[in-house]
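Issue 218. Parser rejects a valid record. Input:
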Amino acid sequence: MINHGDVSFVLLSAALVFVMTPGLAFFYGGMVRKTSVLTIVLQSFASMGIVTTIWFLFGFSLAFGTDVHGIIGGFNYLFLENVILAGPNPHYGGTIPLYAYFAFQEMFAIITPALITGAFAGRMRFRAYLIFLTLWSIIVYIPVAHWVWGGGFLQQMGFADFAGGAVVHASAGLAALASVFVLGSRTFKKDEPHNITYVALGTGLLWFGWFGFNAGSALHADSLAANAFVNTDIAASVALITWLIFSWIIRRRPSLMGALTGSVAGLAAVTPASGYIHPWAAAVIGVAASLACYGAIEFRKKVKWDDALDVWGVHGVGGILGIILTGVFALRSINGVSGLIEGNVHQFLVELLGVAIVAGYSFVLTYLMLKLISVFMPIRVSEEEEGEGLDVELGEAAYQL
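Output the parser choked on:
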């Protein structure tokens, strides 16, 4: 039966998740060279257009349609057929119309491939990116969403991912790492952000939208949503402070960029656990995420992987860590899933297996996909174009020089 409060809550949450993609555009835009700002912003906005179209045509159906052998959804929701006038689906929020669930999930599908763009910032041709965005959404994101949330084999195994630690962050993070291996390092490296104010604005929008991302995944305006909301804020806040203090000790000065990066690491890590844990565990996840992601970034620098904006180090490592700690800290009294802390070794092992499958699938398919695209067209800009900045291709400039 339709509950109007739940409908309003889920639609508002969908709107909050929508804001995260423009927020990501600012977050990434502030970190790249000033001659490539518009390109990376356009990459995020292009995802809004292309993924929405895919989601409307067949994406939602393949992700959340009738399960076919645990691998993919059916064709019963093509072109939103049987969605527009459908009442509540007991599997996707029993008190909201399926239409509302479509809108909510659409926003997750949009931001996930946009996250990957930070890894190859300043290197990929826009035409190649559009093809990659389309293929990755169809071949990687849609099947993974079905496996975890749409009745697929991982969900049947009992794999728990409340709001996207595996579906969003692990899949995007490992895809980012694969793209680095295919495209190689930048010729003109500039690791210092050109506009930290933009990064701070983007972080604020991401943090704001993340409340819809996590709390909205409860699909009801209830205590579970409130718990996820509080856990989200606690993990991000504790991670921010942990990163700030840790980097301050090492660099001997505070860093706004460090604080901002720490908060995003905490947000990514608490995402899969937010609806299964007590707030004290969210604080522990915040500390763990900050230290683990900081270490991952330092490791990345040491081995010279040119993940320009540390998508793997923050989202990949943060998402994987969050899934693992879901298997540790989940409490049955909160949302019916118990973890290692309650003696449930099986759930912990399922979390390990599930995130390994998602991460491995995303990495391998992304690598092969980019290699295939490169057979038909150059995917990397020339050294001259890289030096001038990617915005030259657009014929537009973010700043008047």
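Fixed in the parser; the record now loads. The chain has one domain: 4-394.
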